[in-house]
Design a protein that fits this description.
- The chain is α/β, with parallel strands linked by helices.
- Helix content is about 50%, strand content about 15%.
- The protein has twelve helices and 13 strands.
- The protein has a six-stranded mixed sheet with strand order 6-8-1-5-2-7. A three-stranded mixed sheet has the order 4-3-10.
- α6 packs antiparallel against α9.
- The radius of gyration is 32 Å and the shape is elongated.
- The two termini are about 65 Å apart.
Length: about 400
């Protein structure tokens, strides 16, 4: 005889909650492929979980497969479904292809599904992240976590939290004292609060840690991929602002250009190739980025600057060089050598550059000569550009940008 099932992925996973609506039996932990779960269904002053069909079958949602059981007199599949439709009024009931189901536990609790059986899932009619008017209510989450703990234990609760998006909205309301969820279970929560908080807390910590790592990786990628542009623009602006009245800054710019030019020369002399699989064809020892950043960072540290500037500089250098390591532009050794050479050149500039002589040559009446305002920029642009790399690619017939 054909059977009808509902895939529960939120409050329906909780036995005491689903029994308030109808008769669902034979719970089996199940994964449904092709659906993603999120906290995006606004209803009755809260944001509940929903699933959304995904264009990729690699996406999935884990929950509980429940069979409609006709234990009451005069009950039918249609009346039971109608009861759950009324409960899930903000959702549409959608049929799930059996090929998308993967039973993960209690496979023998009921007969295997056949082509004659039906499986339904409730999909939200709206998809909007939580906010202060429709927050994630603790009383609602407590019911779901209870279901996870009773059906699959703490590991199942962890999987629920980590496979559900929307927590990052920050709109979270602790309403245990005055529950705002219509099917809240304050008596059970009072006895099991620590257990729920432990299961939920550990998962949230993991989720936040993972989100932080992804954010950190994205930030370092943005910094690393734009280092040349950011540094060049920053030095250009500082040069135009400072050099007209500061021989010290002009000496820094000249030394920085010489440092960059030396990195290009050393690359040609050493002729050490980049790592296998690198998209760049010119030699990689020492790292030009390493030398330039080593010079600039050390120069900043040798001047009077705030602790925040020091931390920001260290983070910027780390982001840039770690990006180049991930992209296989350099080996660790090439980056380290570049940093050391650049730092050494900075110490030399700080101690031995003839700033006084430069002031006499480049300034008249305290004002910089135009040639010293323009020439360092032109020479610097030629040195730090990737013109030679572009010509090398053209010479071997490769047009792809790096």
């Amino acid at each position: 005889m054909p059977t009808t099932h509902i895939f529960g992925y939120g409050s329906l996973m909780c036995p005491s909650s689903r029994h308030l609506t109808g008769n669902l039996a034979f719970p089996r932990i199940c994964r449904v492929w092709g659906f993603e779960r999120s906290l995006t269904c606004r209803s009755s002053g809260l944001t509940a979980v929903s699933v959304k069909p995904s264009s990729s079958l690699k996406k999935s949602t884990i929950g509980v497969l429940l069979q409609i059981s006709l234990t009451e007199p005069n009950s039918t599949i249609e009346t039971e479904l109608a009861n759950f439709d009324d409960r899930e009024v903000m959702y549409d009931r959608v049929k799930v292809p059996l090929s998308n189901l993967e039973i993960l536990s209690n496979q023998n609790l009921s007969p295997p599904l056949t082509d004659e059986d039906d499986v339904f899932v409730y999909v939200s009619k709206n998809f909007t992240l939580p906010d202060k008017n429709f927050p994630i209510r603790q009383s609602y989450v407590d019911v779901i976590i209870r279901g996870c703990l009773e059906e699959g234990g703490e590991d199942f609760a962890r999987q629920f939290v980590e496979s559900t998006s929307g927590w990052e909205s920050g709109s979270y309301l602790d309403d245990r004292v005055n529950p705002g969820y219509v099917r809240a279970e304050p008596a059970w929560v009072a006895k099991n609060k620590d257990r729920v908080d432990t299961a939920l807390g550990r998962s949230i910590v993991r989720l936040r840690t993972r989100s932080f790592r992804l954010l950190f990786a994205r930030l370092t990628q943005i910094i690393g991929s734009s280092t040349s542009l950011v540094v060049s623009l920053a030095i250009f602006v500082l040069h135009i602002y400072n050099s007209p009245t500061s021989p010290k800054f002009l000496s820094f710019l000249i030394a920085a250009v010489l440092n960059a030019g030396l990195s290009k020369l050393l690359k040609r002399v050493a002729n050490v190739q980049r790592p296998d699989g690198s998209s760049l064809l010119d030699p990689g020892m020492p790292s030009s980025h390493g030398m330039s950043l080593g010079f600039i960072a050390t120069s900043l540290l040798l001047t009077e600057c705030s602790f925040g500037v020091v931390l920001g500089t260290i983070f910027f250098v780390y982001s840039s060089l770690s990006y180049r390591l991930r992209m296989k532009y350099h080996t660790v050794g090439q980056l380290v050598v570049g940093l050391m050479l650049g730092s050494g050149n900075s110490f030399f500039w700080h101690k031995h550059f003839p700033v006084a002589k430069l002031a006499k040559v480049a300034y008249v009446g305290g004002a910089i000569k135009k040639v010293y305002l323009v020439a360092p920029l032109i020479v610097g642009a030629g040195v730090v550009s990737s013109l030679e790399r572009f010509m090398l690619r053209k010479s071997v017939g490769i047009g792809k940008k790096s």
